[in-house]
Amino acid sequence: MKKSLCFKILEDHLLRGELVPGEEITIRMDQTLTQDSTGTMVYLQLEALNPKELKTQRSVAYIDHNMLQAGFENADDHVFIRSVAAKRGIVFSKPGGGICHQVHLERFSKPGITLLGSDSHTPTSGGMGALAIGAGGLDVAVAMAMGEYNLIVPKVVNIRLSGALRPGVNAKDVILEILKKRTVKGGVGCVMEYSGEGIKSLSVTDRATICNMGAELGATTSIFPSDEQTREYLVALGRGKDYRELSADSDAIYDEWMDLDLSEIQPLAAMPHSPDAVKSIREIGPIKVDQVAIGSCTNSSYSDMMKVAKYLEGKRVSPEVDLVISPGSATILEMLARNGALATMVSAGARILESACGPCIGMGQAPKTGAVSLRTFNRNFKGRSGTMSAEVFLVSPETAVVSAVAGVLTDPTEFFTEIEIQQPDRYPEASGGFIYPEEADFGEVVMGPNIKPFPMGHALEENVSGKVLIKVGDNITTDDIVPSHAKLLPYRSNVPHLAKFSFSTIIEDFHLRAEEHGGGFILGGSNYGQGSSREHAALVPLYLGVRGVLAKGFARIHRSNLINSGILPLVFVNPGDYDKVEEFDALEIDGIRASLERGGDVLVRNLRSGEEYEMLLEVSERERKTLLSGGYLPYLKESTK
Q: Does residue 347 sit in helix, strand or coil?
């Protein structure tokens, strides 16, 4: 007894290791999901592994990110993924089927399963009581090929909810409140597990919203218990047989606790340019709004869409505002079309986008120069919208729609007192967007000319040296390392092209520096690599010859991606040493291979100053062998000879 829900599921899936926080374990993975932005690389790696059969119960490939087909690149990637899916027995979700996390919640997630996804917002399925984790693409390919995943046993934070949300306050405001209190580093190394009487008032999609943005805390995942709300949702989806009641023991032991009264939460916004820069709507004031975007995997559920439609009845979007709406799945879009809500939105002046990630990933709807854009999304990193000068605020659907009509940022609470949304008794089964393995007609794997081989590391040398190619600060995102917008997303399967734009949100010549100096090192602050799970943020530096990253600390997924690519993730023992290193300093690490083989700290010598810096290289036995081999794929190939 005394087990958290997280530890119950981990124990049920444990293959190797011990459930001791900080130790590496191997767990069985029941399901995987990919999306097309990261999926092409996943399936290139799966083909390199070439398993005889998949070891998961269900794997799904979604097309939801790279939807603008301005050239052949995105369409070619989609055909490649579809061909691998047919070959390998993977469910394929066609373009237009919906956003992977919303659709997976509706169609495939189950209480108590493990799910690994090549997208950092995979924890969305924690709203249904699944242990859902975002990871780099190679980890997902390995999960499909071998049925397992390696992770560091997390600490578990119990967030106890009481009360109920007031009208006009959304689950989005709950997670923004938590981000305000804990920051984007507040969940690193942790699972956020929710409990308390307050959860009874939250629907499964409310819970999914909270779990979705738990990724912005840096958390390994987030999870709610499976209860009567879960059962009702699954029954409405026609999947009542998938229900099982799951919760933590009443006397469960946790590493930390946090109490939150839902009735005290007010409408909030994350201000530019970080999800934890949170203030109340009233505190920010009635600033003029230019664009409003409603949707994304965070807030595109049926109930969120209906709240928007109900408020828009008989109203008109401000002439000064461009309102765009993206329903989360083909199922939801069909329901809105059948019940008249879609007509209400269009009549009010909204633009309806297809069921896809769209502007959340920077794929279209870039705001005008200097615009204020309110978005119900999960990230507002500078330039992610496609416009570097835009001021992007993260808000709830209620705040978004009220502000779209008013033309200024507006508190929605007084406008939603009479609006109540009933959860549907039955969802339609919109299956037209799926190709199941038994329906797939496999010919050959099709690769277009934009799909290039992924870079592979080589065995670690005895000595490593190079220049510091760039020095960056805290909370550098994967969007900084490899920008994500409509112009670059079509090249996610082309690392050589992406490399030309690495760190272009900070400097324009990083790739030229790397070429001139034959690679080298990156110097980072704390929480280096936060944000997306995209392994391109490791593959691009690998392609450019980066051998190591020296930082005050790393985000979980990016650290794993660096190791998988054979790049050394080195942490300053004395954080003050970071200030002593300058761009273009020549650094030298003698005997790194021997140091790694025997364990212990690593000494880095600065040839300019003559100083030495003590660095931590805390790795598991598997990670140690991975780095010695030059990456996870070389290690797997060596270990299976």
A: helix
Contact between residue 44 and residue 75 where contact means Cβ atoms under 8 Å apart? no
Beta bridge partners of 478: none
Q: From CA 373, how far away is CA 290, in angstroms rounded?
A: 6
Q: Closest Cα to residue 385, out of 346, 357, 354, 355?
A: 357
H/E run at residue 465: strand 464-471
Beta strands in 227-321 (DSSP E): 256-261, 268-270, 278-280, 291-294
Alpha helices in 394-469 (DSSP H): 397-406
Cα 68 to chain centroid distance, Å, stands at 21
Bridge-based pairing of strands 278-280 and 268-270 is antiparallel
**Amino acid symbol at 69:** Q
Q: What is the pLDDT of residues 72-124, one digit of tens each?
A: 999 999 999 999 999 999 999 999 999 999 999 999 999 999 999 999 999 99
Percent of the chain with pLDDT over 70: 100
Note the pLDDT of residue 489.
84
Confirm if 616 and 439 have CB atoms less than 8 A apart.
no
pLDDT, position 438: 85
Q: Please list, residue by residue across 283-308, b when 16 or more beta carbons sit within 10 angstroms of its beta carbon and e when fewer do.
A: ebeeeebbbbbbbbbbbbbbbbbbbb
CB-based contact 369:387 (threshold 8 Å): yes
Q: How many residues does the chain have?
A: 641
Give the list of residues 6+ apart from residue 163 with CB closer than 8 angstroms, or none: 198, 201, 261, 262, 263, 264
Task: Report which of 178, 220, 180, 224 is spatially closest to residue 201, judged by C-alpha positions.
Answer: 224
3-state secondary structure of 470: strand
Q: What is the DSSP letter of 580?
A: G
* Sequence-distant (≥ 6) Cβ neighbours of residue 76 within 8 angstroms: 446, 447, 448, 449, 450, 451
pTM above 0.85, yes or no: yes
CB 242 within 8 A of CB 110: yes
Burial-class residue 456 by CB neighbours within 10 Å (0-12, 13-18, 19+). Answer: middle
Per-residue burial over 234-243, b = 16 or more CB atoms within 10 Å of its CB, e = otherwise = bebbebeebb
In angstroms, rounded to a whole number, what is the distance separating the alpha carbons of residues 554 and 521? 15
Q: What mean pLDDT is predicted for residues 208-236?
A: 97
With a CB cutoff of 8 Å and minimum separation 6, the contacts of 600 are none
Residue 252's CB is within 10 A of a number of other CB atoms, namely 19
Question: Which three-class secondary structure state does DSSP give residue 577?
Answer: helix
